[in-house]
Amino acid sequence: MNFLERTLSSFVNAMERALYAEELAQANGLLQRLDPRIKVVSMLALVIAVAMAHKLWVIGAVFAGAVLLAVSSCIPLASLARRAWIPVLLFTGIIALPAPFVVPGREVWRIPWLAWPITAQGLSSAGYLISRVETAATLSLLLILSTPWSHVLKALRVFRMPVVLVVILGMAYRYIFLLLASAHAMLESRRSRLVGKLEGPERRRLAAASVGVLISRTLEMSGDVYDAMLARGFRGEVRVLDDFRTTPLDWIMLAVLAALAAAAFYGGSR
Amino acid sequence: MHIPDGYLSPVTCAVLYGASAPFWYVALRRVKKFLTTRLVPLMSVVAALTFVIMMFNLPLPGGTTGHAVGVALATILLGPWASILAVSIALLIQAVFFGDGGITTLGANCFNMAIVGSLVAYAVYRVGAGRAALTSPRRVAAAALAGYTAINAAAFCAAVEFGIQPWFFKDPSGAPLYAPYPLGIAIPAMMIGHLTFAGLAEFVLSAGVVAYFQRTNPSLLKLTAPGASPADQEMSPLAWESTWNAVRPLGAALALLLVLTPLGILAGGTAWGEWSARDFSSPQTRERIAAASQDQAPPVQPPRGLERLCSVWTAPFPQYAPAFVRRPAVGYTLSAMFGSGVIILVCLIGGWLASRGRREPSAGG
């Protein structure tokens, strides 16, 4: 696969991923029914609890809780495995692989033939790294698969994030898809006109020119967007409608998830 | 390069959020002052663009492909402050929406790539490009170097953040709680990948796009080129070739420097004339000095001047090995890479000063 095809496939993957998340966020599951503010706060508390835990079983318990939440929110475990568990295991697993041999400590086993010692501390550190990354990735994925992006952004206002930043994030997300579609069309048409094989310098020139064209178009577009905003009465001030409503279910789930996070803090730090 | 959750301790994450906060604040104020009401549409669209550029697969020399962060490119086109904001927003969307990089580690990722990356890229580009014309091949070379240096500076910061984890954060049995490798492993492991592939991707992207704008729309390069000489003309296709020719020797020299680095590890002993005052009192070293000096016995006492002067200056990397790196081979490699970088930087600053010196009398006359 050449660089044009690889870039095209990464664009398509990003678009597919976003569509899939939007679809799942409409499902009638437990997490989908919760107020986005409750979800953002409790997921963040759980991620921090996992980051602070000093015990493997505590991280494992939070992971089990996350799997339970996924099942009760109609989020297929296969999808979690494909998007988080397997990629994390491949990436972090390779990084953690030498740890049992490199980290000094009590020797528990020695590989026959090679005589490489495996230490208990090395095994624990590899376990900490993989379990922490897997659990945190699962929790973040649960949030994004159960909440439309615009709601996640509005919920960030709970943390006193400046309104201007929330608006920039919302607009940036919107334009990502426009630019992805534009870049996709540009590269697809270039690929359809390509005959034979390009040499290395030609390939680099084509990639740089594609990025350059995209930048020129984008800067031009930002001017158009600004004019359109002015035409609709924009005077530099931005407001966000905070239209979320909480239900008793929200408060019950907040209590449950906060209790899980507090237990993880307590159990993990002892 | 995008550090996921779980690799850094919450304390490190909090410190790096704290370190990034003043830069975000200053960046937002400066950009807002400059753009006023244009801030929202321009930053939104540019952050989206930065995100999409990160997804491009760039063809690298040798037939492989790689992704670039595009931080040097954003800095050259928008200036360092707008680049800090745009890259930070793109990193936030990547972390929250696409799971690329963690939420607790977002401060660290922004500090390494958006802040250190933008500021290093800006310094290198401004010094490297000097007052060269907007369409000068020197600007392409400076952009390439800015991209390469910025991504490596960011990778170095990330490696140091990984490397200090096992020092400070261990469980009662002594097992590291977060990234398990010390600096001696973390730095070479990160830097090898970035000095080669990731650095090369940034090199290709920055140089290629600056060269493209020199041909099509040089005015886009004006923002970070104050005082650029006005001798700008439309570039001919020949000039397009010459920009790549300008970059090629630079790349070759960098590659050669880095490739030759391990040779120093293979060469045994001390280089002739590079003896320390201590070497004169060791019988073994005295024999080696004599053997390397056509059997001329060295003086019994170390020369007094050498003894006096050797304590005046202690190099930051004494004996080519930083104190925190235990293995001499690793220390040597790092020191050599650091040294190469310093030499390139000194040459560039020297060239810039020389070109200023030449220009000023003519401007006065």
CATH topology of the largest domain in chain B: Arp2/3 complex 21 kDa subunit ARPC3
Task: Give the number of domains of chain B.
Answer: 2
Q: What structural class do you assign from the helix and strand content of chain B?
A: mainly alpha
CA radius of gyration of chain B: 24 Å
**Quick one: CATH class of the largest domain in chain B?**
Mainly Alpha
List the chains of the largest interface with their residue counts.
A-B, 92 and 72 residues
- Shape annotation of chain A: flat
Strand count, sense and closure of the main sheet of chain A?
Answer: 2 strands, antiparallel
Fraction of residues in β-strands of chain A:
under 5%
CATH architecture of the largest domain in chain B: Orthogonal Bundle
What strand order characterises the main sheet of chain A?
Answer: 1-2
Structural class based on helices, strands and sheet pairing of chain A: mainly alpha
Strand and helix order of chain B: HHEEHHHHHHHHHHH
Helix percent of chain A reads: over 70%
Number of strands of chain A: 2
* Radius of gyration from the alpha-carbon trace of chain A, in angstroms: 24 Å
> What is the first-to-last residue Cα distance of chain A?
52 Å
The end-to-end distance of chain B, rounded to whole angstroms, is 51 Å
How is this structure best described in words?
- By secondary structure, chain A is mainly alpha-helical.
- Chain A has one domain (3-269).
- Chain A is 75% helix and 3% strand.
- Chain A has helices at residues 3-25, 30-33, 36-52, 56-72, 77-96, 99-102, 120-146, 149-155, 163-192, 200-231, 248-269, and strands spanning 107-110, 117-119.
- A two-stranded antiparallel ribbon of chain A has the order 1-2.
- The model of chain A has no long low-confidence stretch (mean pLDDT 87).
- With 365 residues, chain B is an all-alpha fold.
- Chain B folds into two domains: 10-260, Arp2/3 complex 21 kDa subunit ARPC3; 268-313, no CATH class.
- A two-stranded antiparallel ribbon of chain B has the order 1-2.
- The longest helix of chain B has 37 residues, at 328-364.
- The N and C termini of chain B lie far apart (51 Å).
- The model of chain B is unreliable at 232-244, 264-268, 315-322 and 360-365 (pLDDT under 50).
- The chains are: A mainly alpha (270), B mainly alpha (365).
- At the A-B interface, helix 1, helix 3, helix 5, helix 7 and helix 9 of A face helix 1, helix 2, strand 1, helix 4 and helix 8 of B.
